[in-house]
Specification:
By secondary structure, this protein is mostly beta strands. The protein is built from no helices and eleven strands.
Length: 127
Amino acid sequence: QVQLEESGGGLVQAGGSLRLSCAASGRTVSSYAMGWFRQAPGKEREFVGGISRSGGSTAYGDSVKGRFTISKDNAKNTVYLRMNSLKSEDTAVYYCGLGVPIRDDYVPIRLFEYGAWGQGTQVTVSS
């Protein structure tokens, strides 16, 4: 019964910023690790960022470190991905995932460590 709904995608020029949102229903994000993955045409789904159950730990893919930030707003039951200094290679469909419980401080970074996904939101970065 869990539902994850991404929003905030769109067209942005290189160097710009965008914030993606993942609104959860049927589950409380404070009880789960959460993450963002992306998939570009012809490529496999790639880990972007993750945040632990408590929100105290985060992890990022090498290609986005220093540019993207994942966060939780427990009051809104929403997970965010703030994307700065966007590049054309960031163009992809971005998916929000619900982590399978492991331990409180753990940040899942692999596909099999997530049990539910949203439908995705398209991000297109123009040159």
